[in-house]
Amino acid sequence: MIEETQRAEYSKITDAEIRSRIDDLLAQMTPTEKAGQLTQYFYFGSLPETDAETIADTPPSSDQASIVEAALGRGEAGSLLFVTDPAEINRLQRLAIEGNRFGIPVLFGFDVIHGLRTILPVPIAMAASWDPETIERGQSVAAREARSVGLHWTFAPMVDIARDPRWGRIIEGAGEDPHLGAAVAAAQVRGFQGGAIGAPERVIAGPKHFAGYGAAIGGRDYDEVNISDAELWNVYFPPFQAALAAGGGNVMTAYMDLNGVPATGNRWLFADVLRGTFGFEGFVVSDANAVRNLLTHGFAADLTDAGARAVSVGIDLEMAIVDPAYAHLPEALEEGAVTEEALDASVRRVLEAKLRMGLFDEPYVDVDHAREVLADPAHREIARRAAERSAVLLRNPDELLPLEAQSLSKIAVIGPLADSKRDTIGPWVFDFDLAETVTVLEGIRAKVGDSVQIQYAPGIRPAQRVFPSMFDMFGGNAPEDPEGFDDEAELRRAVELAQDADVAIMVGGEWQNMIGEAASRSSLELPGRQLELLQAVVETGTSVVLLVLNGRPLDLRWAAENVPAILDIWYPGTQGGTAVANMLFGEVAPGGKLPFTWPRTVGQVPMVYSHTISHEPEKQQQRYWDEESTPLFPFGHGLSYASFGYDNLTVDRDVITSDETLAVSVDVTNTGTRQADEVVQLYIHQRHGQASRPVRELKGFQRITLEPGESRRVQFSLGPAELRYWSAALRDWIVDASTFDVWVGGDSTAQLSTTFEVRKA
Asked: How far is Cα 464 from Cα 632, in angstroms, rounded to an integer?
């Protein structure tokens, strides 16, 4: 948690002054005014009428905007979202202040997930960098842009552990592992929020979705979740704890039932765990309409009951489209369904956030300054660097990559995704500028200039969803079929270009509206005719590089056996094409690592590296009779244009007590011929104890840069924080007396190992 001394560095008001000021306001506010402070409205005034109407339970945008503006005029709104125009934010803020008899401003929130104007690689890609500094730097750019336009708070980071790639929102998180997930979560909070709430050019960070949202049955977004207590404490909670320890000022609820109780109405989650065990003092917001959904779940009897129960468990702010349940809180208070103490506690937390952000003193934004910040070229450089550090080289056995431009005369670039600006930046972005987005095709052309002939063919038409995305209401979100597209002729043309080229670069993957919220899939196959196109291009005999545009593992079984080079570029963002070209031609060596286990086929999911050892472990690879039950690529996998050797793995003591820490050291050498990065990974296994422990668990990592021939001694620490686990039998944390195996290497299959022993203190 952020200490008071850190807050004081940025705040113009002391903690005592905040308490006094809020006490004074609470003493004068009516129940209706208090309920208003606990209500956050979407504002769709800038959306076309037809777009707003596609959102469930939403009137035309002009009517919805009138409802919200009327609430502002009555002093009955505490926050707004979905506005990014600084002039409009100023106008709405003025309505709020003038409409509230105490002059209380509203908080403006927004989904700044991986950038506002400058779009960074998607979050799963940033996690693949295994580089907290890159992640923090990227989100500080996102925060600076957001704050410049008048936003105060982002609904990010998403820190849900995701182990089923059918779930579309895997793209927003850090993958399957709690240790990596915790490091990524903390880095994002530091980037968004800085040292404390109110830091200059930063916004409030809002870790979400508490808790277990990523474990939906079948990977189906919004469906129920059933997770054991051991999994909650050991796997799903750690990223939230890390985000809060980094100072995260807000937490968002989850939509679904958790073990039979809707998360948004779950007293154990919010009162016992979040407020009690984690000591969280910030404010909690519901996901969109999640308080109203307590009625949908069959949990609440009516909206009055829904509002009362949500506030009673500690949900401070209701995110609503229209007709919020919290509008019924005065009625619930009068009926005794909610206490004044619970209501005031929520209002206090919301008002404290506004005071710490300085909104009572400086509620408006400088429009001219916003334009300057959004145009800052330094932000684009940070985005490019992030894309370069996020890419994962999956396959390159014959060292086709990097390409040597001077030895090439013709390059064929194939696939409709190769020149799609909208798909290059990925989902969950709304205020982007496509004109400045660099596609893969554009990046390659800019890189080689006139020295190499670049020919492009889409080959196939874009694939389409069976059920449209709710985000398709925004213009250009869904891929459009080109007019007069002759499928067979275009496929032949792509094959002919590939056949005539020295190398073919195909970009394949998912269109960006096929992943994200409400974008779960029953298959992991390449959508549309992409596999057919890839096979036809490979059959020409021309060397092929496959670039994968994705946010989850896809079925690449055929490609992994037949394509000589595969580079996962994710959705690389505004400067994606430039970054990809730099890697293709060797200016930069890929150094990213997979943040999830890559299954061979959807029939294997969920597949995680950190499974426990069960009956007949020697047959672990034969659990399915029709195909190996092993991943296509293991967790932590990622190749380089160099090679690395590991040697001399040591522990500084063979035996420690359960309250002590030991040092693990290893020599890492760049055995290649070029400078490159390696992510050094440490895994452990506890041989025996009060529970069966995973076959391997990540407990440390460091990304290092080595020159050719350079060696470095890398050191890790293993102590109670790394060795403990939550025991379902003991209902508590424990460090067992046991023998521990340690492996260090470049992925989760590392072979170099040693052991140590833990004895009871």
From this structure: 27
* Cross-strand pairs, 504: 412, 544
> Which is the catalytic residue, given 111, 287, 305, 419?
287
Report whether 412 contacts 505 (CB < 8 A): yes
Distance CA 599, CA 484 (A): 38
Q: Which residue reads 């308490």 in tokens?
A: 19
**Partner residues linked to 738 by β-bridges:** 758
- The answer to whether the Cα torsion of 695, 274, 211, 354 is positive or negative is negative
User: What are the residue ranges in the chain where pLDDT is below 70?
Assistant: 1-11, 46-61
Question: Residue for token digits 């293993």?
Answer: 718
Instruction: Report how far residue 305's alpha carbon sits from residue 308's, in angstroms, rounded to the nearest whole number.
Output: 5
State residue 1's pLDDT score: 47
Which residue type, as a one-letter code, is found at position 677?
Answer: D
Specify the amino acid at residue 573: G
747 is catalytic: no
- Three-state DSSP at 611 gives coil
Alpha helices in 375-458 (DSSP H): 377-390, 421-425, 440-448
Structure tokens given for 440: 């893969």
Cα–Cα distance for residue pair 347/341, rounded to 1 Å: 10
Q: Using CB atoms within 10 Å of the CB of residue 486, give its burial: 0 to 12 exposed, 13 to 18 middle, 19+ buried.
A: exposed
Read off the tokens for 396: 């390159």
Angle at 569 between CA 565 and CA 575, to 5 degrees: 130
Radius of gyration of the chain (CA): 26
| Residue among 550, 596, 570 at smallest CA distance from 176 | 596
To the nearest 10 degrees (0 to 180), the angle between helices 367-374 and 86-99 is 140
Q: What's 212-264 look like in SS3?
A: CHHHCHHHCCCCCECCCHHHHHHHHCHHHHHHHHCCCCEEEECCCEECCEEHH
Question: Residue 583 corresponds to which tokens in the numbers above?
Answer: 């890697």
* pTM beyond cutoff 0.90: yes
Residues 500 and 332: their CA atoms lie apart, in Å, by 74
- pLDDT tens for residues 309-327? 999 999 999 999 989 999 9
Give the pLDDT score at 13. 86
Strand order, beta sheet including 503-509: 392-395, 565-568, 543-549, 503-509, 410-414, 453-457
CB 631 within 8 A of CB 605: no
Please, are residues 625 and 680 in contact by the beta-carbon 8 Å criterion? no
Angstrom distance (rounded) from CA 31 to CA 45: 28
Please state, in angstroms and rounded to a whole number, the distance separating the CA atoms of residues 175 and 186.
15
